[in-house]
Specification:
Blueprint: E1 3-9, E2 14-20, H1 24-33, E3 37-43, H2 49-58, H3 67-82, H4 87-97, H5 102-117, H6 121-128, H7 133-145, H8 148-202, H9 211-247, H10 249-261, H11 265-285, H12 291-298, H13 305-319, H14 324-327, H15 335-347, H16 350-396
Antiparallel strand pairs: 1-2, 1-3
């Protein structure tokens, strides 16, 4: 949209600034609604291609607020609105309180859009590119229905729970990765330090070694003499894998489906994605967003393409007039969830039934994560111990 530079009187002083509008006439009318008498107004000059590229290269990156930050901001802003403070004053107060922080920078930007460009709150949030689309849409509905204060508290609760689940899932996934890295490191120590020393001892025996011992020595020599190429090869394979997964949808779909089939880990990933997606759906639907739009927006929080596919297909079925429970009937979503959705539709309490399921599912997710972590440690010990034992036996056979 074109940007106009203006100079005007507000009754006391001369003011200037910029405003977005479709044309000059609309810009003048927008300024008049603010009580300004326009003295001068003109279209802001377009940047040259070179300056445009340079400004984009060196412009500060847009701040994407984290879930915890959104939760804190929403709860405090909602509390100020419930206390009777106006939206503009509440934003200004919090911007001053969080000055020089990420939240403060974003709030100051929101304040400028509302005050200087006459934007509504939801539009200002969208303009910052700092908030999720779910958040913006729910704020837009709240502005239209006059429930912004209570909706912000609801959003705060949603993002607090979402952050807690993401943090628990992240820590649960990091644990097996760290165990794997430590296991590989332990095996490499044996292959690169212990085995070469024993090889030196055996070289003076003057007799042939057992085949398994020679096999272990050959592997040790190969790693020792080609470690740089092996490291570069691992990095290249990793980068190629990431490129393929990011670029090709079918490859990504296959990989995400494979992840859900991994013992111990798959069930945790599946339930974690479902809880986050349907918590988003419940938050939107229970606050007045139509069911189709709620389902569409809830896909924004799903990172697994295989699960996202079910939700998208269900949304398309809903658009054709099929019931929600029928749309999910053939999906791999938990049977309990599908039953509770069907009961909720029949009783007219869909949001209540989904909330009941989510409360149970979150508890189940915590239990599954604890069980997974408890099972990984002894399992990894057995695997690594077995490999080390084979190496030791091979090297001490002679």
């Amino acid at each position: 949209m074109p940007v106009f530079y203006y100079e005007a009187f507000n009754g006391k002083d001369k003011v200037s600034g910029e405003i977005e509008a479709s044309n000059k006439a609309q810009a003048v009318n927008m300024l008049k609604t603010r009580g300004l008498v326009v003295v001068k107004i003109h279209l802001k000059k377009e940047e040259s291609l070179r300056s445009s590229i340079m400004s984009k290269l060196f412009a500060p990156r847009r701040i994407k607020l984290k879930d915890r930050e959104i939760a804190v901001l929403s709860r405090q802003l909602g509390s100020l609105l419930l206390a009777g403070i106006s939206l503009v004053d509440a934003i200004s107060t919090l911007a001053d309180e969080y000055k020089s922080s990420r939240i403060g920078h974003v709030l100051q930007e929101v304040y400028d859009y509302i005050v200087n460009m006459n934007m509504r709150f939801a539009s200002a949030l969208k303009k910052t590119n700092s908030f999720p689309i779910i958040y913006i849409n729910l704020v837009r509905v709240a502005e239209e229905t006059g429930t912004l204060d209570s909706t912000l508290i609801v959003l705060a609760t949603f993002y607090e729970r979402r952050a807690a689940i993401k943090e628990k899932l992240k820590s649960a996934m990091i644990y097996p990765i760290m165990v794997g890295i430590m296991s590989i490191a332990a095996i490499l120590v044996f292959m690169l330090i212990v085995v070469p020393k024993l090889k030196t001892v055996y070289s003076g025996f003057g007799k042939s070694l057992p085949s398994i011992t020679q096999f272990v020595i050959n592997i040790s020599d190969f790693i020792y003499h080609n470690w740089l190429w092996l490291v570069l090869g691992v990095i290249a394979i990793y980068l190629l894998f990431r490129f393929v997964i990011k670029t090709f949808y079918k490859a990504r779909l296959f990989w995400h489906r494979f992840l859900l089939r991994i013992p111990l880990v798959g069930n945790v990933l599946m339930l974690g994605e479902i809880v986050q997606a349907f918590r988003a759906f419940y938050t939107l639907f229970s606050n007045g967003v139509p069911i189709v739009q709620s389902l569409e927006l809830s896909t924004e929080v799903i990172t697994n393409e295989y699960i996202k596919q079910f939700v998208i297909e269900a949304k398309e079925q809903l658009e054709k007039g099929v019931s929600f429970s029928k749309a999910l009937e053939k999906s791999d979503l938990p049977g309990v969830l599908k039953v509770m959705i069907r009961v909720g539709e029949q009783s007219g309490n869909l949001d209540t039934m989904i909330k009941t399921y989510l409360d149970m599912a979150e508890e189940e997710l915590n239990i599954k994560i604890d069980r997974m972590v408890a099972a990984i440690e002894p399992l990894s010990t057995i695997i690594v111990g077995s490999i080390v034992l084979v190496i030791l036996l091979a090297m001490y056979l002679p």
